[in-house]
Amino acid sequence: MNIVKQQFNSQADNFHSWAVTKNTEYMQRYADFVNISKTDSILDVACGSGDFAVFMADKAMRVHGVDISEGMIDIAKKQAQVNHLGNIDFECHNVEDLPCKRHSFSLVVCKSAFHHMENYTGVFKKKIRCCHPKGRLSIQDITTYDSRKVNDYFEKFEKAVDISHHATLSQADYFQLFDQNNIDIIRSLVVEVELNFNEYLSHAHQTKARKERIDKLLSAGLSDPEISQFF
Known about the structure:
This protein is of the alpha/beta class and 231 residues long. Helices cover 48% and strands 14% of the residues.
């Protein structure tokens, strides 16, 4: 957890300004998917710089965002103030021990964060505790590639770009997470998103050593016929 906290504190501004973080089309798609309504009280787990929480605020009754990074939460709070939102608040806290009352939210979401979590099963159980028994839980995140070779390569690449990356889960892993906790899956959605390569690299804080490692991995990937098609 210290690695995640340190990395996101150092890259808070980069992450906040990343085109993917700011993409309202992606946010609207996810908001539609979880079916946000004006009666919803929403918990955004690992909310980052608060972009999605702020996006949801005028669509819901209230929104509460929690993240481990002080840098991210500072930006999130400023966003809420700038947008004059009175139904949203943010809290800096380890999401493995969510500081929320039992069954206090009708919708609990987590966007693009499970791949940073070593104890993702524990976080999921905390999400369940915070969610009303008749509420909804949702996870939005990247998933593994079908090819073991391609997936192993991009796991190395992800960790080179962002040292806080722990492991990408498969679709089956996510389904199992819901199944093991006796939660019905209402619907699922797979979306392919193209990323600008340079923007993707710059969303995380890069040291000289990591840039050199990324260059080597990139060269190796581009020279491999199977891997190169994914760039």
